[in-house]
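Exam revision sheet. Question 4 asks you to relate a sequence to its structure. Input first:
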Amino acid sequence: MPGSPLRADLHAILLSIGVSEFNVRYAGGSLLSVLNYLHETDALTVLPQSVLFAFRQDGRFKTLPIKIPQPQRSLGILTLRDAPRQPASDKLTKFIVQRFDDLRAVILRHENAVIWGT
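Answer key, structure tokens:
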């Protein structure tokens, strides 16, 4: 879809490896339909590490140790400046931050344990 962040990311990645023009031949569908398509063909694609990590036990997909430029992403928690602090929102904020820290550690541990090329 023109203007989509995913398309912009794909374009930036392809530019970084020297591909100046590209056409999207597949649009829409679910992540599962894309993964099924990849499994049934000889296609090569670029997927976020988080997707491959989520399907790491599946065993159908292999990753290549290629570093590609990724836009920085941030998750923000918006609070009102003059609103009184709420214990529930503070607790939720701490929970989200802790879970992302835990996820970061698990992904790093997995990346360090992967034997590339198998």
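Marking note for examiners. Residues 5-113 form one domain.
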